[in-house]
Amino acid sequence: MYLLYTIFTSLAFFFVFKRMKRRRYCTDLTRLDGKTVLITGGNSGIGKETAIALAMRGARVVIACRDPDKAAKAVRDIKFKSHSLNVSHMELDLANLRSVREFCKNFLQTEKRLDILINNAGMPSVLDWTDDGFSMCFGVNHLGHFLLTNLLLPRLRECAPSRVLTLTCSSYKYQKLDFQDLNYNLLPFFTYCRSKLANVYFSQELARVTEGKGVTTYAVHPGFVQSGWTCHFSFLFRILMQVVMWMFFVPCEMGAQTVVYCAVSDEAAKHSGGYFVDCRPATLRPFARDSGVAKKLWEASERLVKLA
């Protein structure tokens, strides 16, 4: 009897876990023939699955990442899975603002179009520093993408209607910004939360800056995804998280669905500056909708990255 009870309880928990992992799929079939998509961190995880999905829709896909060997391998895999040869890679280190500037210069010289920019790359809650002295989370997740987007914004306007997607996380709700110390390095997890809140504010202010200029922008929470972020941590932590991710997190292909939706959907285009979860607009906490804070962060970011 005890054995039957144990089996029944285990199956019940397994069923609940599976229900928790169910997510919506993007059902919009819009093609992207003739359009160019740039995806940061497109060599793995959600970025790679997004690259495959958009290449299958006919887009020219450029993935940008730090390691050229990993990028080249990813490009071969994306081409194979998408049945598209129109995929390439460029080197970009978001932890180095000089690299961001060099990347944008090269991209603008070699690519005549930019229709969709997907700010996907990100760092988990690690206590480390960028080459410019910022915390790795804030420097990569926000400042690197802030500078990248601003330097590529003229091309996005030229190719309007165009879109900017910035991946964030629901953990934004656990912190508020401290303009006395945006790096906030005492507790790495809270540093990560602040960087994700910065992504939300950035998307909102970008929508205001580009209003009426043909560029729409979205903050996208892909859900909790079985990606490779644990590679930055110890072996024991990785083993533990593999079990947790298998039970609670969704595969990368499913995590990419909301990203794909915001990249192609006409319905999403009606909500520029919005926050999207599970292929639909979602409501932010009131403090995360403060336009004054969003503008203040934009101005502070301009100073930090020395954007004239």
From TrEMBL:
The keyword Heme does not apply. Keywords: Oxidoreductase. This is Retinol dehydrogenase 14-like. Pfam families: adh_short. Belongs to the short-chain dehydrogenases/reductases (SDR) family. SUPFAM superfamilies: NAD(P)-binding Rossmann-fold domains (SSF51735). It comes from Salarias fasciatus (Jewelled blenny). The keyword NADP does not apply. One of its GO terms (molecular function) is oxidoreductase activity.
